[in-house]
Amino acid sequence: MKIESIGKMFALGAMMGLVAVAPVRADDDETPLSEQMEETSAALKGLRKAPDFAAKAELARKGQESTLNSLKYLPKMFAGMKDEKVKAKATADYKRLVGQVYSLFAELELAFLDEDDAKADAVVDKLKDLKKEGHDAYIEDE
Question: What is the pLDDT of residue 137?
């Protein structure tokens, strides 16, 4: 990863406004982080088939849980970062993004508890955008 790429990564600012859902994938290998991200993604995808608001609220809670669990891990790309200052900033930004995903899942749960489809749709759109931005930032270029 080039230093310029890292700079661009921070310039994204309010990324994940995760993710997007499933916020950030470590890479194609199965890792504890990728497993949590898959659970987060599954919760979001499951919303299409959920039969009612109660089931959708439960999926939002599962998304919150897996998102929170993902904070225990860092993307694999961080292991290769030599500059500790850059690594510290990237770590803080990653945590910020994952925190935003968690917050959006909480908003989504509230929307379902209020039985507000329009609000839920808007939150899902934000989660999808956040996911894309997080993946763009934290998945290494091939």
Answer: 77
